[in-house]
Specification:
mainly alpha, single chain, 0% strand, 214 residues
Length: 214
Amino acid sequence: MFSTASLLTLGFLLGMRHATDPDHVVAVATIVSGRTGLLRASAVGALWGIGHTATLLLVGGAILVFELAIPPRLGLGLEFVVAVMLVVLGVRSVVTRDRAHGAGQDATRPLAVGFVHGLAGSAFVAMLVLARIHEPVVGLLYLLVFGVGTMAGMAAVTASIAVPSAFALARIGHGARHLRVAAGLVSVAFGLFLAHRIGVVDGLFGANPSWDPH
């Protein structure tokens, strides 16, 4: 058995690793594409982590306390929502000509995206460790630390995206639009790929769906 300290340390490290999942990186990269400010880009990653952690605490806490089970079709359906969201984010990035919107919108979008990601089956990677926890208080603390790890991890990821982006913009000049379009097209393509995998390969739209939380 893990001690509480080692369990929480593991939760933080798994949270940081969880932030690097491809669908997470693609979504946040699309949001920050064309930005030149390192702090603003890192803030986007942190806001995504806050939204993700809020959902994880609500849903994961309910699963832990009430011993709920997630039906395969529901789990796949939540993942399919992420695929649709990636397509929408990508299309929006392609058709938007500028960033002329307020700070409120800047904050709302990564929060909402993080919230949706938290709902999806990928968030239930936390449940792999929660299965070993018999005390709800420790389990909730683990979820919180896992969430803090995702915030730290995504802040680092977005910072690593912003640095080369800023360098490229400095060299190219007026290249923000091209970066946004490129990021948007990647987001659309990855979203369509996920939608096919979830809907067809994993059987969301079939008679016998197969869901493996990851």
